[in-house]
Amino acid sequence: MAVPESSAGSVVAAPRPILAPNAIRIRSVSWLLLPVLLAAYWWGTSLSDSVIFRILLARASYGIPVLLIVVASIMASSRSHTIERRFWALVAVANASLFLCEVLLAWWLVAWDPNGPPRVSWPFQAMHLVAAAAFIGALISMTRLPLSTLAARIRYGIEIAVVAGTLYAAALIFYARPAMEPAGGTIPEILAGAAYPVASALLLGGAVMNFLGLKAYKWRSWERLVIVALGVYVVGVALWPMWFVSAGAGSRNEARNILDLVQLSGHYVLLMAAVYRLTEGDEWFVRPLPPLTLTSRRWLAAITPLHALAGIAVVAVAAVSSAAEPMWLAVYAGIGGLLLVLPLARGSLLALEHSTLFHRSITDPLTGLYNHRFFHDRLDEECDAASSASQELSVIVVDIDDFETINLAHGRIAGDRLLASLASSIRSVVGPQTIVARIGGDELGLIMPNAGMPDAALVCQRVLDHVNIDPGTEFGRVTASAGIACFPEHADTSKDLFRLADCALAWAKERGKGRAVLYEPGRVPDLSPRERIEQMERSSRLASVRALAAAVDTRDPATRNHSQSVAQLATSLAAAVGLSEDHVHAISMAALMHDVGKIGIPDSILRTTSPLTAEERRRVQEHSVLGQRILVATEFNEILPWVRAHHERWDGAGYPDRLAGEEIPLEARILAICDAYDAMTSDRPYRPAMGKAAALQEIDLNIGTQFDPQLADTFIRMVCEHDAVASLP
Question: pTM here?
């Protein structure tokens, strides 16, 4: 047997329906009980010699099927799933209310009046109202509404309410009042009587919408019986005002008996639907019913105002004819007011929906900023406006540095939280005229109308300052890069303006990140689309390797942010010895990725607190060679020898190639000093961190053996000047 899926998508078991082996016998015997019950009810109502026996026989004949429906519906609900479970649960509620009504009626007939309660008894009406609401709810529970928002569902409910209100006005004016008023019906009785045909119409409409939408040959047996039962209920409910009239004419018992026979037939057919459902051999899951299509909803929405106008017109004519009757005038005024207010409420809700949808269409759901589409549409408009008014316009493109590394190290949920926080911070520091949008995964765009280069540079620096996060946070050090382009100095179209700002951003990324670059012709390359794609591919490969290096750092809490710290030290030392900006940038890249080869070393070795064995030491020393192999994919060929040689020693006792002196690349010698200093000043599993002064002293003691003498001397002076050696611990 196939395993069905619930509507929520989860796989559920398909228990076998009870009574299935004896299904034909049970169904046949059950059908034979219907004429027996009908005959028993009619016989009980016709007896005259024993009032109590007559009452008990008639009420028992009527109430037994109702009670059995409750039991069978509970059994069917317990063996169903999702939608069908709700359907049978609501059927059980409806019939439980009707059964309580029967118990109350039997008590009334025996203890108070054998002729029954008054024509309109509100306890009985309340129970019937609960039953009607439960039946309608059962139909609604099996109607799939393809509506995504609560507002849309409320609007659909208002449309149904307008149709129901119009039907109620027609039933009151043309059916209930003309029939019941001559029979002595009061206004509350007539108002209650008009509700019955409306409930009948809703039940019929719901049944047609849910079941007749399926092809007849696809119906299952229990679905056909539900249709028949609801059809019988519709007839019985619609006959209530006529029962009222006949009761007033002195044939109260006969009219009630006929109505009860109709309802009893409906109860029994519904009971048989539950019996058939319990004895069917298919799996216990509801077959999808046809949803309300957009076409049907548009049709309903289109006729809603017409319904309201028709109802108001009918009520207005009736109110004019009842001008001498203040109570009826108030009733008609209330109905007309409701039919007037409901379409207005629907229109207001529709306007609110449209404004909400428009807001969602231009807003990024994660950050609350404008989205990519809105940014470019607005940039087109602002460029046209600036050109017409001869005003300036600036565009800033901001990108969070190494955001993929953050996602890899902390998870995408944490990354999303960081991005939302940064977006809120950026929005708080720019002026109200500045348009801020999320135009990519970790990329933001700013449009500054009537702002030139000085204003754009000031705002851009303010943004980068707020993005800069202290390394002590859970994310470590977070920076951003930015590119700026201005209209009309750099470009005269929105497309070119954004492209040049993006080129300036790429230049900032290439030159060390954490900075803002203003586009300058001749200095910042104006890349073609193909060149930009190639650059993005290189950056993507580089970002992957950087993320891998960050993953190495996060494998051990003791080495967290080690690569970033070494990169900062190496950048400062390279600048201190007079290397060019491009050279400094390349050394920074090598420092960030110098330990990437440790990805191949087991955690048991990296995190050990005991001295390494000879084999473990050999495995650790392989990381520089492995790092070189990994970095081949970045196409930064110049940094490969530096990463390979960053553990070589000045005296030739290092690894992997035992280079000595100036055979070791200058850049690798810089990395060696910075790597050693950060390792000494950080806690490790096998020892606590040294103080800065002690680490500098250790470097000084190893000048000429482990470290380049000139570079080591420069490094010591640089650190002392930066940290004020007198304050070192």
Answer: 0.46
